[in-house]
Specification:
Beta-Lactamase, 14 helices
Length: about 400
């Protein structure tokens, strides 16, 4: 059975030369004795079983020093061979490109010369590597031009042919990815804050999968956590006030059938048992064939707005009632003051004014009081003069307003 592993990372030992070795069934087996390697490296092939002998024969023919070196030299990811203390022994071309430095510069600086001392993530990664023998993570490194970049790495400790502890670290520049992730995170944070302030949340129902998703804002409105929520339509409907559930269900089904949008107000039950009033606006999304696939909506908690509106209506009604009372009082006071200001009317004039108040004409008053019409008109003229009124109605209001 063939057993193979390729390790690159030590400066070549002149005493042993650049001979590549492979073992078959535990015995040394010569491979490519005339293989020429760069004078900086020694390649060793050693101890990983391929299993089936036939497969091992094929692997031995395909995976050898040439293939290992080709992988190292042409990998799109950076490869650093180091001593665990941070000394860099070798860096492949991709690592040089990522770090913007030559291999000699990288080896001279070591890990400490290319990392941000303020980035605490390095401590976490190195402690994990020390504890488990391997680690993965993202941390900051400094390029040759002084620019800080975000590097994703995977590190593994191994021992070379002489038993010395070494480390292989694969690095990848993920600066753009980290920036996008941060922007996305910030955007989500801003959206969550806007939803919280506006008491709004968004939701979506995948019809085929019966999968409901809520935004953080909607969880806040319901006072729920994701762990407490059943992400199905039935689970969402359980959060609707019992008397409103059928109406909500019917509205959604009608909108799906008509492929139309809808607006719906209903009562929702929070986790703490409080009832809130929500206004939903939703759209039906369809596929290319016109079949409904999703329902997407926005819900707003309008409980406080409804309470304010009811309070405003109540206040408005109360103000109108009080205004009417004040107007009535003002008219009564005005009539009383007017009656106090005008010259006293004779009993006959008061009698005529009361008949005027009933809507009788001068002729009708004259007939009722057995007076001539001219006499009635003269008394009316005296009434207007004494009350400083411009017409009969004004005189009635000023003199008889309080009485009426």
């Amino acid at each position: 059975m063939w057993s193979i592993v390729a390790t690159i990372g030590l400066p070549m030992n002149p005493a042993t030369g650049g001979v590549a070795t492979i073992h078959k069934d535990g015995a040394p087996y010569a491979l490519a004795p005339n293989l020429e390697l760069p004078p900086r490296f020694r390649v060793t092939v050693d101890t990983i079983s391929t299993g089936n002998p036939a497969e091992g024969d094929q692997a031995a023919r395909v995976i050898g020093p040439e293939a290992s070196l080709a992988l190292y030299e042409n990998s799109p990811d950076g490869v650093l061979f180091t001593v665990p203390d941070g000394t860099v022994l070798a860096a492949n071309p991709a690592a040089c490109q990522i770090l913007g430095r030559t291999e000699a510069e990288i080896c001279s600086l070591g890990r400490q010369g290319m990392t941000s001392q303020t980035d605490k993530r390095w401590t976490t990664i190195l402690e994990e590597r020390e504890r488990t023998g391997g680690a993965r993570g993202v941390a900051t490194m400094i390029r040759g031009d002084g620019v800080a970049i975000e590097v994703e790495m995977s590190a593994k400790i191994f021992h070379d042919a002489h038993g010395a502890e070494r480390a292989c670290t694969i690095i990848r520049d993920v600066t753009d990815r980290v920036r996008i992730e941060r922007e996305l995170h910030d955007s989500r944070e801003r959206l969550a804050e806007a939803e919280r302030v506006a008491q709004i949340g968004s939701w979506e129902w995948d019809i085929a999968r019966d999968r409901v998703s809520w935004s953080d804002g909607l969880f806040d409105i319901y006072g729920l956590t994701a762990e407490e929520f059943d992400f199905t339509l039935d689970g969402a409907e359980k959060r609707v006030y019992p008397d409103d559930r059928q109406r909500v269900r019917d509205t959604i089904q009608k909108a799906i059938a008509a492929r139309s949008s809808f607006t719906l107000e209903y009562r929702a039950v929070r986790a703490d048992g409080r009832v809130r009033t929500l206004r939903n606006r939703a759209e039906i999304a369809v596929d290319e064939a016109g079949e409904p696939i999703r329902v997407v909506g926005i819900a707003q908690d309008i409980t406080d707005a409804e309470l304010a509106r009811e309070a405003l209506q109540s206040t408005s009604s109360e103000l109108e009632r009080r205004a009417a009372e004040l107007q009535k009082l003002a008219l009564a006071s005005s009539a009383q003051l007017a009656s106090e200001r005008h010259a006293p009317l004779t009993p006959r004039q008061m009698e005529i004014l009361r008949l005027v108040a009933k809507g009788l004409t001068s002729a009708q008053i004259a007939e009722r009081l057995f007076l001539t019409e001219a006499t009635v008109k003269w008394h009316v003229k005296q009434i207007l003069t004494k009350t400083a009124s411009s017409n009969r109605a004004e005189a009635v209001a000023r003199v008889l307003g309080a009485e009426r």
